[in-house]
Amino acid sequence: MQEKSRALKHFRDLEVYRLAFRCAMEIFEITKAFPAEERYSLTDQIRRSSRSVCSNLAEGWRKRRYKAVFCNKLTDAMSEASETQTWLEFCQSCGYIGAEVFERLDSAYEQIIGMLNVMEKKADSFCY
Which residues are CB-contacts of 43 (< 8 A; sequence separation ≥ 6)? Predict the structure, then answer.
C-alpha cells in the first residue's frame, strides 16, 4: 500500500481519499445532466453518499487517537461507498449513465471499499 511508503500527515495524503474524491467529483459532473425530476431523489442521494465516503474518512482521520472511532468511521465510509454503488445501478437502469461509466465507477468503489477494509484491519498502524 502506498500509505506505508511515506509519512502521512493529512487525510488528503491517503490514496483512498484521493480516489474517492475523484469519483465524487465525477458523479457530480455526470449528475448535472440528470432530469430535473430526479433532483431530490437520485441526484441528491448519489451526490450525498459519494461525498460522505470522503467526509467519513476525513472525520476518522482526525479521530485516530481512538481506534474504535477510527474503525467506525471507516465502516461508515464503506457503507456510503456501497450505497453509492446502489445509486449507480439505479442510474444505469434508468438510462442516465451507460454501461461503461457504471462499470468504471462501480469498480472504483469496489477498490475504495477494499482499501478501506485494509485500513480497518491495519488500524493500529494508523492510530496513535
Answer: 31, 34
